[in-house]
Amino acid sequence: MAYKVIIPAAGQGKRMGAGKNKLLLELNGTPVFIHTLKVFEEDTECESIILALHPQDESEFKALIEKYNIKKVASFVPGGKERQHSIHNALKEAGATGIVLVHDAARPFIDKRHIHELTDAAHRTGAAIVAVPVKDTIKMVKNEKVTSTVDRSSLWAVQTPQAFRISTLLDAYEKADQDHFLGTDDASLVERLGHPVTVVEGNYDNIKLTTPEDLFFAEAIMNKRKTSLASLDEK
Predict the structure, then answer these.
(1) Where do the domains of the chain lie, and which CATH numbers do they carry?
(2) How far apart are CA 77 and CA 92, in angstroms?
(3) Whole-number Cα distances in Å, 9 to 40, 107, 156, 178, 216
(4) pTM (predicted TM-score)
(5) C-beta separation of 170 from 127 below 8 A
(6) Measured between alpha carbons, how far is 196 from 187 in angstroms, rounded to an integer?
(7) Exposed/middle/buried for 148, CB within 10 Å: 0-12, 13-18, 19+?
(8) Local structure of residue 204 (DSSP, 8 states)
(9) For 77-92, how does the pLDDT look when each residue is reduced to its tens digit (9 = 90+)?
(10) 61 backbone dihedrals φ, ψ, rounded to 5°
(11) What is the DSSP string of 112-136?
């Protein structure tokens, strides 16, 4: 199923403490956001990439995109004050029909199988997200006291990409803009319209690089994947 993908990359990543856009940090010698773009560049079902950037980063990002021969970036749009504003800007470049994905630039480990499952689900139902079951015990806390223990059997940790019919997501964004509503993710905007959202089970490797510790996890995931590929080559 063909799709377009919006990748917001305008955040400053203050929790990473890098002193620059965290997406420019390197994993195995390559910037984080290039790892992410390559997933979509190499997917034959991806028609184009729409990238939302902070103006001060635009020239550096464009130079790196050219250096790494990324051809599918069709549009650059200015990032907004909030992630939601950046995506709304990008969504206006996506056209009126088809499937659009929204994916965090700081999640370089999404795999094509889950992307394709998402796009198929969005084509059928209009909206789909990738998520994984929560593994930890979750407690409600108030004033440093536990008030209850939540049944985790119905709790899922949501990731990206999130996939939608373009018309569905655009309706949700326009309504949110009218109501001055800021959601926690794209699906939350669709949910408030009463539209059902399908869940596709993902992979725990699909982490978002947010803090310095996440870079160690990222290196471990890359090493694990290299080992797996080496084992397959030996067979």
Answers:
(1) 3-130+159-234 (3.90.550.10)
(2) 10
(3) 15, 11, 25, 24, 21
(4) 0.92
(5) no
(6) 9
(7) exposed
(8) T
(9) 998 889 999 999 999 9
(10) -65, -45
(11) HHHHHHHHHHHHHHSEEEEEEE--S
